[in-house]
Description:
2 domains; mainly alpha
Amino acid sequence: MKKEHFTLVLLLIVSYGIYILYEPFWMSIVVASLLAISTHHIQMGFFNLTKNRFWASALSTLMLGLLFFAPLGYFLFHISLMMQNLDPMIMNTIETKIHTWITHLPPYLSRFEAKIEASLVKFDPTAFSQHIIAYASEIGSFAMSFLSGTLFILIFYFIAHYYGREIFEFFKRSAHFPQQESTLIMFEMRSSMSVVFYSIIATAVFEGALFGLAIEYMGYNGLLFGIMYGFASLIPVVGGVVMWLPFTLFELSLGNTENALFIALYTIIVISVVADTFIKPVIIKIINQKLIKPQEKINELIIFFAIIAGLATFGFWGMIIGPAITVLFLTLMKITEAQSEEIIH
């Protein structure tokens, strides 16, 4: 066996061993690396400010933890406590109110009365409350697991920023990847992922703040439910509905018709129509053109479906992984096309 072949076989064996060894951390490593690529502009801003790569990486990591992971931890902790302390009588009150609504349905909705009644017969408020309390303990366990995973993501995120350039250059030299192609891949990934990341953060913060202010006005925890709405808004099409509809039904069950109408109309008109339809595209356009300045405009429809596919396949972090895989695929297709044209000519 030639020395080169022996080295290659040994490298494959050791690579498999590395994969098995770090298998529990691969998701954290991938997410942290993609987040580091997405926030390269922030890292460079801190570096220009401090003139020190260590402190720039540390400040970037601290900012990511405060803006992205701290709200998630706050949400998971408080929602677990709320579910554990749920009053079963609330479910009974809601059921009673629904029965009252059924008796006053308008004629054009009367055909749904029998189906609603059949569903209510099967509905057991006490059992439902017990299920919610049981889910609360699961959410608590998930929160602890999430926070531990978050810690690893932040550690790998710092490493990716601090040693990222050396790691990238090492793999580029080892794989003998051409300079032009590697630069194109990194540029496309950095530009596209930055637009995706900043758009996600801007949308979540903006729409979450609008919803949180309304909920705070009604006497609820505006910070908690603003965070909840912010992350719910990332779910395409139905994101906001999963927040304002339960609030509307709950207020109706308490007899607060004015509050129910306020939160429904406010969310639909102010957030869904004005903010989501008119203001959100302007924010994304500013991010796309002013902050990132990519050479080619990103197709929003492709990114939209990439986020949906990512969420469906990888869960929460799919909103980062999905667009990354899609952008990498399209970039490699561009490189292949360019190489084919060079061969023809």
